[in-house]
Design a protein that fits this description.
- The protein is 39% helix and 20% strand.
- By secondary structure, the chain is an alpha/beta fold.
- The strands form six sheets. The protein has a seven-stranded mixed sheet, with helices on both faces. The protein has a six-stranded mixed sheet with strand order 9-8-7-10-11-21, sandwiched between helices.
- The termini are far apart.
- The relative contact order is 0.13.
Length: 500
């Protein structure tokens, strides 16, 4: 059980200026540049992180390439890779609370959610892929008796991973753990808005005896470091979670360089559909409130569009107002609060800009819509709900990535499907119904990589996560993620008759 006094002690710990982690060593950015880390909790400076330039990116990629070519990891015995990754996971878990508090101070996620969803989840993800190392075998193809077809699974080379600020440890682990498990070397670029936790985890990689250069962390501006990774001729795969604007630039960089493979997990505008036969309506609405407002809606799969069948519409609005009013917003390291801080001032302003758009569109405000706790110096906002939102509204169509819910009525199943599929996104969806036939119909009809039924959320490493349409390509989580980071090499062998 986490005690408040423990959190109060951890939150005051001094954080030294942070450097780059390249080839198992800490080093300053070559030009000596740094970025100030501001806590969203109170707007105060926490520390600084190194701001990498092109030369630093090249050093990190070169270190990764050298480690790969040296074969100290890529050709290491599977059991040895497994042992070292499991040791790394154990070290992360042993310091899970300290690492989580460090991350919360950096990105503002409420501690009650971050503890399980960040450091603990990161450790469990690394364990999952570590355990797969000596269990995933190659194949022998069904061929003629005079031929033997072998399929070898081999690592590709250097993987660059660019990750966001909302859940840096868990999302980062989804990318680096399968890449490392099959023998690749990795360069990780965390968001400049949330780098501290990964730098702490990188220090533990040395303790786990991960060979030098196999895992590297470079911090700095995304516009510079991300571009440099995208253009680098020696990066074989680039995996990215973030916005579609940056994703389109990464496609351009890949085309301008070595046509590297891209795997993209992009935005979402997830429909959450409540049918008249949903069951316990209070529980459904309570789950729906949590599905949008946890971590201030700063979740790729946030249930940001609530679609409600007309006969339930007024009662759902009443319950939404009642349950949302009970949420406590404030310091994310105070265990009494349900919701923490918006990650940064720019994101807060973006959220408020969408509220101004809603007012210009004449949308009906049910609750919220204001910045709060201004005296704290941090970035806090009321959970906000607009009702009777048409599908043409900017709030209905665009990912906001904030605590803002739109509510829209629908008449029947076909109308619900039409509304659900009427955006460019296809990451997640939810369906609340007691009709098993309807469940199966909607699983096929809704354009979404994940469809929740009578629940929302609940990640498990055994199930893949990936998007449709402009929500991305490829899969994080599950053994499907391993395939992204492998070549499948065919050995075609003739079997000759014995000499007479």
């Amino acid at each position: 059980m986490i005690e408040q006094h423990t959190l109060d002690q951890l939150r005051t710990q001094h954080i030294a200026p942070q450097n780059l982690f390249i080839a198992g060593k800490w080093q300053e950015a070559e030009q000596g540049d740094h970025l100030t880390v501001t806590s969203p909790i109170d707007g105060k400076t926490l520390t600084t992180i190194a701001s990498a330039a092109h030369r630093d990116v090249d050093l990190a990629v070169t270190a990764a390439r050298h480690s790969f070519n040296a074969q100290k990891w890529s050709r290491e015995k599977p059991q040895v890779r497994k042992h070292k990754l499991l040791k790394w996971a154990d070290l992360i878990e042993a310091q899970a609370l300290e690492i989580t508090v460090l991350g919360v101070r950096d990105n503002g996620t409420e501690l009650s959610m971050a503890y399980k969803a960040e450091a603990v989840a990161c450790a469990n993800c690394i364990r999952y892929y570590a355990e797969s190392i000596d269990k995933l075998a190659g194949e022998i193809t069904p061929t003629h008796s005079k031929q033997l077809g072998l399929i070898h699974r081999v690592p590709i080379g250097v993987v660059a991973a660019i990750i966001p600020w909302n859940f840096p440890l868990s999302i980062g682990a989804w990318k680096i753990a399968p890449a490392l498990s099959v023998g690749n070397s990795v360069v990780l670029k965390p968001s400049e808005q949330a780098s501290l936790a990964w730098l702490a985890v990188a220090a533990l990689a040395n303790e786990a005896d991960i060979p030098e250069g196999v895992f590297n962390v470079i911090t700095g501006k995304g516009s510079l470091v991300g571009k440099a990774l995208g253009l680098h001729q020696d990066v074989d795969i680039l995996t990215f979670t973030g916005g579609e604007v940056v994703a389109k630039k990464l496609h351009q960089y890949a085309a301008q360089s070595n046509v590297k493979t891209l795997y993209l997990e992009l935005g979402g505008k997830s429909p959450n559909i409540i049918f008249e036969d949903c069951g316990d309506l209070h529980n459904v609405v309570d789950s729906s409130v949590k599905a949008i407002f946890r971590n201030n809606g700063q979740v790729c799969v946030a249930a940001s569009r609530l679609l409600v069948q007309a006969p339930l519409y007024e009662e759902v609005k009443r319950l939404l107002l009642q349950l949302t009013k009970k949420l406590r917003i404030g310091d994310p390291l105070n265990l009494k609060n349900h919701i923490g801080a918006i990650n940064n001032a720019h994101q807060l302003q973006s959220n408020l800009d969408f509220i101004n758009v809603a007012h210009k569109e004449g949308l009906d405000l049910l609750t919220g819509g204001q910045q709060i706790l201004n005296d704290s110096g941090g970035y806090y906002m009321q959970p906000t709900i607009f009702t009777d939102v048409p599908s043409t509204s900017q709030l209905f169509q665009n990912e906001i990535f904030g605590p803002l819910l739109t509510v829209t009525p629908f008449e029947d199943e076909q109308h619900a499907i039409q509304l659900a599929n009427s955006t460019r996104y296809g990451l997640a969806a939810g369906v609340w119904t007691q009709d098993i036939s309807r469940t199966h119909r909607l699983l096929l009809e809704i354009d979404s990589g994940v469809v929740h039924v009578n629940c929302w959320g609940g990640t498990d490493m055994t199930a893949p996560m990936g998007g449709m349409k402009q929500s991305g390509n490829g899969y994080d989580r599950s053994l499907l993620a391993v395939h992204k980071f492998c070549h499948y090499k065919t050995g075609w062998i003739a079997i000759n008759e014995p000499n007479a």
